[in-house]
Amino acid sequence: MGGTFDPVHHGHLVAASEVQAQFGMEQVLFVPTGQPWQKGHEDVSSAEDRYLMTVIATASNPRFSVSRVDIDRGGPTYTIDTLSDLRRQYPDVELYFITGADALEQILSWHRVDDLFGLAHFIGVTRPGYSLDDEHLPRGSVSLVEIPAMAISSTGCRQRVASGLPVWYLVPDGIVQYISKRGLYRRFGQSPAQEW
Ligand code: ATP
Ligand code: MG
Questions:
Q1: Is residue 31 domain-resident?
Q2: I need a labelling partner for 54 at 20 to 30 A (CA). Which of 32, 152, 177, 190 fits?
Q3: Could you tell me which residues come within 8 angstroms of residue 96 by beta carbon, excluding any fewer than 6 positions away?
């Protein structure tokens, strides 16, 4: 499951857990992007902060792990490189790429879509506010999966922190603490809104 994970939230974790259970997967590998090219114009937290948050959020689940493949490659992250590297790293496993409805829509605009679908089976999960249909998708290459609706986004979490609103229960407790410890998402000069 690729993502910016800035920060990782319970929407990501529920999606991963649900797909893992429904498909009986051995592992869900969270792959934080290096430089997300779709988000180049915005401020994205450092790769190390996003990597550490993803590790913290997934550490307690034996079926979850985190890959540094995109971070260590450096430069903008393209899913075709992610999947090619993972294939080299794990030559004998079946690869699935889990993506939310919004990101799946973008797949059609990605480069070399046919190569992409050849490298992994894609799983599109439902996400509140986005529609998920397979009208435009090549037959047989994408499974659509309904997951418990979590109307949570990283953008919403960042905005809440910047406005001094809590993100408790939207993200794991360790992520609330990490955001506070590192002073992430605060506006310039803003003091911690909530001490605890
Ligand atoms: P941002 O608002 O910064 O774009 P995000 O919440 O969309 O953050 P990403 O890191 O962009 O999180 O998403 C990683 C993957 O997780 C994408 O495939 C996205 O569609 C999926 N995803 C994110 N949030 C949810 C959610 N609440 N329900 C289902 N899928 C989700
Ligand atoms: Mg997103």
A1: yes
A2: 190
A3: 19, 23, 25, 120, 121, 122, 123
CATH number at residue 62: 3.40.50.620
Question: Which structure tokens are listed for 8?
Answer: 């990782």
Examine residue 48 and state whether it is found in any structural domain, yes or no.
yes
Alpha-carbon distance 23 to 27, whole Å? 11
Q: Which residues contact 158 (CB under 8 A, 6 or more apart)?
A: 6, 7, 185
Domain holding 71, by residue range, is: 2-150
Q: Does a structural domain hold residue 45? A: yes
Residue from 4, 77, 98, 155 to probe ligand 1 pocket by mutation (most atoms less than 8 Å from CB):
4
Number of domains in the chain: 1
Q: Which protein residue's CA is at the shortest distance from atom 19 of ligand 1?
A: 100
Give 30's strand partners.
66
**Per-residue model confidence as pLDDT tens for the chain (196 residues):** 999 999 999 999 999 999 999 999 999 999 999 976 777 556 899 999 999 999 999 999 999 999 999 999 988 888 999 999 999 999 999 999 999 989 988 876 776 778 888 899 999 999 999 987 766 677 777 899 999 999 999 999 999 999 999 999 999 999 999 999 999 999 866 665 554 4
